[in-house]
């Protein structure tokens, strides 16, 4: 049934050999603009943060990968599970934090799943081919982005309609999906996407459909000496549609809707046994974006309504559904090009239901109802950015979190920086002190088995100090951070004799500190080196699966219409925990360090056609991201992209 990947590889090489070479257009070097740290488009040198921006060009060079894989290359971030089976649950570990401390936004609107344990949004639902760029800011950012923005904010911007009447984009990728022991190179991963968009005078439209399917890998590794466990396939669909209209030069809007679904097979993680379990997750999301511009300012309104349904098919079946409405309305105004002000209000209205099958029964019964499991959050906020003409910049703000269960809480941000202009660049020093507020999720509060309505919100503060130096194509930055968390919510044993667990606040404070260094430089014409190093020191009680040292490096070379690169990632030793079925206790185990080397190549055949391919884990390194779970060995992929 399968075709060997070498056939496709030969076609790729042939296309590169015989196609006409296309010279790259000369691109004028422009000042990089960042948005996420102030909600204003500002030159990078005036920003008081080291913002990471994953550009459209970088995303082009990540074809065939997933969004978590791309983000996992950013300094300070470890997304656990990206190199495992496609259906593996993802852990967002940023600066020693957890999923609930990371805010994920799409086009400026916060997304979350009110039925999930951590209230976090599942990045497995999104498709990379629909993404135009990704902007990431680390540190406490609750002032601008509300509850949960304690360690990072990740804003994913989707692609806009093309500037012509009809545009067609088609992309297809074929690849292997195999462990270190299974190196037969059968095609077992398929990524396909098609998009239609255009612009008709003041009206624009866009429709995208994508699918990802993978098989040939078991989630849990089989014990040594036993036959391999059955494979756990993963299947995902994404449909996105958007229509927009420019009423006048000063008023424009668009409406959108999307449907995302994945079906994932998984094994028994408790007994580390082969199992025919499945997780089915569906998301329907719709919303709008309005911009009204006036002299020196603009008013922006964005909203999103999301329904998510999840079903777990296993020995402990369950159903969960949630409804979330989120909006953000803010006014941006510039005073004399010196003061940039934002005055806004953010709202979040969440509810969820859960169902399970009681022991000895066959039908689902409701265990948690939305009439109880719901809360509302209304947050007014203000932020001011001062940009002087002598290098001093200041970003300050505050937000009043008004929670239907927890009342009022104030968070704030103070972020000064100083930039000194150089010939073709600048050197910048920065510092910040920010606070964050993380309310417990509806699951942690109301789940019938583990919920605890007596939970208090987590509170955290982050101190940062760093620098950024840029001259020509050379950029070097370094940041030291220190984060303190109070009322940390954890899953703990409350009755060991009867195996009773519950979510509770930990009385002791939790600290994390570290250093992030980023480097980017053009070595010679066409040859670029980029990389980062992260040192994270977190409390050992909560530092599971977080490497103390992590390195990412990419060496890229462009020659005419061909681009090729080598990427390397090193993860230091990490600890993990597992339930010991013999001692009936959680044991700690050390996961050994590992290094992964990847190769990528792309070639622009003509104005409309591009071919690409890659090999991941070239050395077939054997390692673990999660104790007793499989990871990908050496794999290859080839693809074709057409733009008409």
Structure report:
This protein has a single domain, classed as TonB-dependent receptor, beta-barrel domain (Maltoporin, Chain A, Beta Barrel). The protein has a 22-stranded antiparallel β-barrel. The longest helix has 14 residues, at 5-18. With 644 residues, it is mainly beta.
Which structural category fits the helices and strands? mainly beta
> How would a crystallographer describe the biggest sheet?
22 strands, antiparallel, barrel
At the fold tier of CATH, the topology name is Maltoporin, Chain A
Radius of gyration: 24 Å
Number of strands: 36
N-to-C CA distance: 32 Å
- Give the full name of the CATH homologous superfamily: TonB-dependent receptor, beta-barrel domain
Please name the CATH architecture. Beta Barrel
Taken as a percent bin, the fraction of beta residues is over 45%
Per CATH, the class reads: Mainly Beta
What count of structural domains?
A: 1
Tell me, what's the shape?
globular
List keywords for this structure.
single chain; 644 residues; mainly beta; Maltoporin, Chain A; 22-stranded antiparallel β-barrel; 5 helices; globular
Topology at a glance:
Elements: H1 5-18, E1 33-34, E2 42-43, E3 52-54, H2 56-60, H3 67-71, E4 77-80, E5 91-94, E6 102-106, E7 109-111, E8 131-138, H4 142-145, E9 152-158, E10 167-176, E11 187-200, E12 203-214, E13 234-248, E14 251-268, E15 273-294, E16 297-313, E17 318-335, E18 339-356, E19 365-368, E20 374-387, E21 392-403, E22 407-422, E23 425-438, H5 442-446, E24 458-471, E25 474-486, E26 488-495, E27 500-506, E28 510-524, E29 527-538, E30 549-559, E31 562-571, E32 574-580, E33 585-591, E34 594-604, E35 609-616, E36 635-643
